[in-house]
Amino acid sequence: MQRQLNLVIVADVHYVHKASHACAVPERHAWLGLELAERVVQEIQRGNRTDALVLMGDLVDDGDASGADEDLIALTNALQKAGVPILVVPGNHDGPTQRILRLFDDRDGLHLLNGYTLITFADAYDADDNAARCPEGVALVGQAASEHPNRPILTFQHNVIHPPVGGSYPYNLINSREVMAAYSANEVVLSVSGHLHAGHCAARVDGVEYVVAPALCEPPFRFLHISVKGRRASVREIALELPDRPPLWDAHVHTQYAYCATTVETHAAIERARLFGLAGVGFVEHAPQLYVAEDDFWSASFLNRPEILREQREARRDRMRHFQAEILPLRNESVSVGLEVECDRNGELTLLEEDHRGWDFLVGAVHWLPESFQGRTCADAERGFMHATECLLRNGVQVLAHPFRYFRRHDKPMPSRLFGPVAELLAQYGAAAELNYHTNAPDPDFFTNCLERGVRIALGSDAHALCEVGALHSNLQFLRQIGADPGQRNILFRPCARMPIAASTGSP
Question: Pairing between strand 208-212 and 200-205?
C-alpha cells in the first residue's frame, strides 16, 4: 500500500533586502519576502504532516546583485526552521545554480522520498530568459522509471510545461512538448512549475497532472499544499491573506514595549494588518512589563509582592506613561489598545488603580501562580488556576488569554475536568475565550464547551514578531473543525472602545 506524500510548494519569493538592487515590479512585495517565508514556516509547523518543502525558484529578485548572497542565506535560515527536508529548483532570477543548491544542501536530479521519486530540474537560461531542457534532462525521467519501477514519479521545474502561455515573455520551456511526451511515456503522476506568477490550476494531459504554483510575493500571497497517494494527487492553494468575510480582528498583538518581543512594532503591525486582510488589530501589552524591570517580571515577583508596582511608579521607573503616550493615539476604528493583566496574591489585577481606565479592553492571563497558591500536587495547581481565573474575570477582564496554557507551559497534565467550570465562569462574567496558538495547542473540547454556553471567541495571534501578526488561519480552521461558523453573529469577539480615555497624569 502506497503511503501518502505531503508537500508544501513555494514559488517566486523575489526577496530583496541586502542586495544592491531595486525590484522594478511594484506588485512584487520583494521587501516582504523573508517574512512571507517565515509565515509559510509557521503554517507548516501548525498544520498537518509535511514530508518536504519544495522551493520552485526565484527566491531572490536578482541573484547576481551584490548582497544577494546575504538575502539567500537569510531565507535559507528561515525556511530550515520548518524542520523538514527542502528541495530546491533554481529559477532564472536566482543567480548561480550551484550556489543556491549548496546553501540548501541540495542537488538537482533524483530524490527518493517515502516511496516516491521526485525529480528536480535546473534548466539553463540564455540571456533573454529562454530555457530549454537538455537531452540528458529529458532522458532522466525514463532512467528514473527504469531504475525505480514501483515508485510514482513527480517532477519539479521553474518554467511552465503546461499550459502554453502566450505573450512576448518566455514562460514555457522551449521544448515543453518534448518534455511532456517523456512525462507521459514514463507515467509521471504530477508536474509542478513556478515562474508564472498568477499560477494555474491542475490540468491533466495524457495521464499527467500539471500544476503551476502561484507567486508567494504577490497578494494574496499564495502557496500550495500537495498530497499524493499512489497515482492520485490533490492540490490545495493556501493564501496568507485572510478572507474579508467575516471581518476579522487579531485581538492579541504585542508591541515594541514587550520584553518578549522580537520584531513586532506598532506601525509596522498596522501595515501587516492591512496587507494580510485584517479588519482590525488589538494591541495588548503585559501590564507588569510596563511597571517592573525584566528580572522582576520573569521571576513573577510582581505577583508575590504587588507593592512593587507602586514603588516603581513613585520612583518614576515604570514605563506605563510612555506606553500610553505612544500607543493610545494610534486608536481608531481599526486599532484598539488594551493591557494583558494577571492576578496577584491578593486577588487583584496587576494594575495600579489610576491605570484601570483608558483602555479599550483588558486581557486576563495566567502565566504563573502566586506563591500562596502554589502547591506540590496537580490538585493544588488546579485550585490555584481556578482561583486566579475567577479573580481575573471578577475584576472585569473582557478576554481570558490562552486558557489552560499554564498547564502545558508548566508540564502539568491538562485538567479537562475544568473545561466546563471555566466555560461557565466566562459565560457568567460575559468574557471571551481566546483562541491562541502561540506556544500553545488549544483544546477542541474546551472551546466546544464555550460555544455551547454562548461564550464568544477572541482570535489572537499573540504576536511577538511581525510575521505572526494576523496569522489566524489555524484559528479559523480550528473553529470549522469543531463545527463553528466564524461568520455567525456573536461568535467572535471584537475589541472596541469600552472605557473613556483617562487623562494622563504625570509626564511620560
Answer: antiparallel
Residues 340 and 297: beta-carbon distance below 8 Å? no
Q: What is the crossing angle of helices 419-429 and 444-452, to 10°?
A: 40
Q: Which residues pair with 247 in a beta bridge?
A: none
pLDDT tens digits, 80-129: 999 999 999 999 999 999 999 999 999 999 999 999 999 999 999 999 99
Is the Cα dihedral 439, 443, 444, 447 positive or negative? negative
**CA angle 81-71-217, nearest 5°?**
80
3-state secondary structure of 14: coil
Interatomic CA distance for residues 248 and 268, integer angstroms: 18
The pTM of this model reads 0.93
* pLDDT-based confidence at residue 376 (cuts at 50, 70, 90): confident
Query: pLDDT tens for residues 238-289?
Result: 999 999 899 999 999 999 999 999 999 999 999 999 999 999 999 999 999 9
Q: What is the CA radius of gyration of the chain?
A: 26
3-state secondary structure of 364: strand
- Say how far apart CA 214 and CA 209 lie, in whole Å: 16
CA 406: distance to chain centroid?
Answer: 22
Domains assigned to the chain: 4-239 (3.60.21.10), 251-481 (3.20.20.140)
| 44 — pLDDT class (breaks 50, 70, 90) | very high
End-to-end Cα spacing for the chain: 68
336 DSSP β-pair partners: 282
CA distance 287 to 480: 33
Gap between the Cα atoms of 350 and 78, Å rounded: 36
Three-state SS string across 16-55, please?
CCCCCCCCCCCCCCHHHHHHHHHHHHHHHHHCCCCCEEEE
Per-position DSSP letters for 277-342, written without gaps between them: T-SEEEEEEEHHHHHS-HHHHHTTHHHH-THHHHHHHHTT---HHHHHHHHGGG-BTTEEEEEEE-
